[in-house]
Amino acid sequence: MDVLYHEHGYGGGTFEALNGRIYGNGTETLVLAHGYGADQSVWYHLIPYLACYFKVVVFDLVFSANVSPGLYNPKKYSSFKGYASDMVNLLDELRVNETIFVGHSMSAMIGCIASIKRPELFRHLVLLGGSPRYLDEKGYNGGFTRSEINAIFKHMHQNYTSWVQAFAPTAIGMNNTRATTEFKNSLRRMKPRIALSVAKTVFLSDWRSILPEVLVPCTIIQSKRDPIVPNSVAYYMKRNLNGHARVKILDTGGHFPQLTAYNLLLKVLKRFLVND
């Protein structure tokens, strides 16, 4: 078993190493997994409501500034499979099955990969602003050309602080000073070398081929005007996921509806998860 803390000599397990926390005491477990550049605090608007119905698990992905940088192994995390392995270990430590998994951005695919590896751990996947591939290809609109991706990497390498100043408001995609500041601060706290390494893993990934292997029912949620993921990607995933999948497009903008349109997002989650 690929155990995070055994690799690096840390005690306490994956849950402790990734700052795992549990809110609420519902009989059903709901896992919230954040995306690139963020940490578990991105869910703070949703947790008080969701904890009324579920046992809510949050944690930080290994690249987060809240996690010891010694735990970030560039080789292991050059693929989403490394993150999915951590996810499986975390759930095994909690001894839970049939969880509801809400994965934002890169964590959407991490959840899909983990569900293929261990389908009994998941009852439902909520893919929030997720994408199997960010690069355009003939017949596929991923949202970015190769030259745009290369420009992002170059900017990050040459002046990380300047890149953060430009990228954060673009990703938030709404006139929301608080959300933009929070995301900027989260990005700024990352070590630039780790931030660039993870960005390459995310933006150069292509997980389209695994979608038919996902047998767990999925709900795909996305902002109507997402600057990172085109709406067409949501419907591409729906067509290619083998299990039951449905799409809900939120009438809002930006890549972080959990920060900028959390009331809209909560309504959808309540309808699909609480009332199911």
TrEMBL record:
Keywords assigned by UniProt, alphabetized: Hydrolase
GO MF: hydrolase activity
Domain AB hydrolase-1 residue range list: 29-261
Similarity comment: family membership: Belongs to the AB hydrolase superfamily.
Protein name: AB hydrolase-1 domain-containing protein
